[in-house]
Amino acid sequence: MNPAAHEESSFDWVALVDPGQRELDEALSRLRVHPVLREDAVRSGQPPKLVLLDEQFLVVAWDLDPDAVVRRPAETVLLVGDSWLLSIQYTQGQDVRPLQSLVEDDGEPACTTPLRAAYRILAAIIRDYEDSATSIERELDDVEAEVFDATVEEDYERIYRLRRRIGHVDRAASAFMRGFEDDADQLEELLKQDETLRPYLRRARGDLAALADLLSTQRMALDAVVSSHESNVSSRQNRDMRTIAAVAALLALPTVVAGLYGMNFKDMPLLHVPFGWAVVLVGTVLADVGLAWLFRRRGWLGGNRQHDN
């Protein structure tokens, strides 16, 4: 997007999407961004953060889609000065959030200052974090039902995708909480310029605190799911090993009998009895059938699996 100004406000808003280095350097130089904050603005792929420095305000936010699982989330960087707002969006190949509609909407607080406009954008991002947590809660319920249902083989990829989603939202939200706590004094000084924003930021901090508690609970629940999944995998592997051992035993019995009667001994049981071979054959088959029944009864060949527990 080209540099733009909000029509009803007395501040300049420069909105950039995946800017080139030259375009970004020109915008940062024209707005006289603090050198420390400038370093954070020119690099994508940074962790979320919130920094106040010399009455300039920097936010690096992960822009998360509540219903999508991505390897690398999009980023929105907000730089706020006394009379200007610079927004930089690094899309990482994803859809662009329409920031202009957020700022120009008629909601509260009215975007008459760059700090208010930045709050509007930040509040929308936090709402998406809350929607993501709600979506995670629903999916976590489904995953728990799968893992603790003995008749269903759970989807391990889904479990680890869910862990990634929780990690993304948790890191994104906790960074804002740390920023509010670490720069509380400077934030108070900044809010003296616009007392109207104080209750809105207090609500944002409350939303982030509640979100952090929910994510902590979800992380513990997912740890229990992962532990149960690993236990289920181990149990299935043990069943497979028992099945292999049972099949080997069933094959070993006739092999041993055939090996014994294949030796050159004259005094073998039933060796010189008419139809003795038939008796040995029937006895071997009956012994194998008996073993198969015993293995199946114990769950080694399917059937009753009460001995798994």
Brief descriptors of the model:
single chain, 309 residues, alpha+beta, Methane Monooxygenase Hydroxylase, Chain G, domain 1, six-stranded mixed sheet
Folded structure, characterized:
The structure is a single chain. By secondary structure, the protein is of the alpha+beta class. The protein has two domains: 4-232, no CATH class; 239-308, Methane Monooxygenase Hydroxylase, Chain G, domain 1, CATH 1.20.58. 58% of the residues lie in helices and 11% in strands. The protein contains eight helices and six strands, in the order ββααββββαααααα. It has helices at residues 21-31, 35-41, 99-104, 114-147, 156-182, 184-191, 198-261, 276-297; strands spanning 4-5, 12-17, 49-53, 56-63, 74-80, 84-90. Strands 1-2-6-5-4-3 form a six-stranded mixed β-sheet, with helices on both faces. Strand 5 and strand 6 form a beta hairpin. Helix 4 runs parallel beside helix 7, helix 5 (156-182) packs antiparallel against helix 7 (198-261) and helix 7 (198-261) runs antiparallel to helix 8 (276-297). The longest helix has 64 residues, at 198-261. The radius of gyration is 34 Å and the shape is rod-shaped. The model is unreliable at 1-8 (pLDDT under 50).
In short:
It contains 8 helices and 6 strands; from the N terminus they run E-E-H-H-E-E-E-E-H-H-H-H-H-H. It has 2 domains: 229 residues, no CATH class; 70 residues, Up-down Bundle (Methane Monooxygenase Hydroxylase, Chain G, domain 1).
